[in-house]
Design brief:
The protein is mainly beta. It contains no helices and 9 strands.
Length: 112
């Protein structure tokens, strides 16, 4: 998995949310047809409860540049990650969080 980085988004000097994201290795895109789509984030059957054990629901959103997805290098090769805003803040499999948004690999999404 690419190096994870944690971004604290601040407003008027206070922490308002934490976002988990990965470094962009290849390129990004803006698929307007998916913007606003509802998704379920599934657990990984081969990696215990990860990456999001509660299997949250959320909405596809854009990043600060308006991109809804990015292609990143994983152990399995290049994969698409989508920006998801969770309906409720979530803790990841490591117990970190709560996060309001995260990039999520396409293989963990079920489109609702």
């Amino acid at each position: 998995m690419p190096t994870a980085t944690y971004l604290v988004m601040c407003s008027t000097g206070t922490i308002c949310s934490m976002v988990k994201f990965w470094r962009r290795d290849k390129h990004a895109g803006n698929d307007q047809s998916k913007l606003g789509s509802r998704v379920l984030v599934r657990q990984d059957p081969e990696f215990g409860p990860g990456p999001w054990p509660a299997e949250p629901t959320g909405t596809i959103v854009g990043d600060l540049d308006g991109a809804t997805w990015a292609t990143v290098e994983t152990r399995q090769g290049p994969e698409r990650m989508w920006w998801v805003r969770f309906d409720e803040p979530q803790h990841d499999a490591d117990g970190d969080g709560p996060y309001k948004e995260s990039q999520v690999l396409d293989r963990y999404l079920r489109w609702l």
